[in-house]
Request: fold
Amino acid sequence: MCLVGGWEPVCGPARVVNPQVGPPSDPKSTAPCPDCQDFVRTFERDDLLSPVAYSVEMIAHLAVEIDRTSPVPLYHQLAQQMTAAIEDGTLKPGDPFENELSLAERLNLSRPTVRRAIAELVERGLLVRRRGIGTTVANQVVHRRDELTSLHEDLQRSGRKPATQVLRLESIVDERAAHALQLPEDSELIFLERLRLAGDQPLAILTNWLPPMEEPFTAEELAADSMYALLRRRGIRPVVGHQVIGARPATAHERRLLEVPKGQPLLTMTRHAYDADGTPVEFGDHCYRADLYAFDITVHER
Reply:
């Protein structure tokens, strides 16, 4: 058995026993046993974090390939691969993350390069820095990339189980939606409102208007699959979308459905989707729990 700085034995995955316990007075007692020597690292004091012992077994084998001939900046290559490891479940919520110095040495990168990559993931909510604990993988948040996908598909891609409650499915007349779909104002549109859950946790309220179709959706179909998948089966293929992202307070109706307290804001997204001919095929007005959802957008220099 070995103790590092007053922490639990690190013969195997280490975890904090008592964050208030400082290093023991006897320096010899801080040395790991030979069996643990290769698996112990500590976070640095210049990172404003107390020393924390953890097993790097879970992250030392994370495959990272850096192409130094690529025009893509090194920090972005690293950030992309770390993001993929989090999204595909290689790194799980709560897992300790390799510190800056260790990662830089292992990948033969400069510390500023690694620091920038880690900072990018912190800013996006994928990693969390906590005093006395270090950098860890954040609790699971659904990240929507800048792609034309459905929330159902985003949840499946992140390894989570989507569930849907169909709240409304009917034909209505709506001037705003008709205008968005480039149809006469008195057109009857297909209106659907759904509550999307990740497992049993409410995540988003999805409100959509669609042009009339020969084979309308059923509530059973919408509860079992994504709207985009159902559209594609009917020969309607959204290929491009224009999205406006915002935030606003939740209404009483939304607070009840999403189980959020009064005053907590929601992320919003309004979408116009078009087929390959430029014909509008969907107009959507969605709201999401901001603590469980994020939009992930990469921008490039002109």
The chain is about 25% helix and 30% strand. The longest helix spans residues 74-87. The chain has two domains: 27-137, 142-296. The chain has a mean pLDDT of 76.
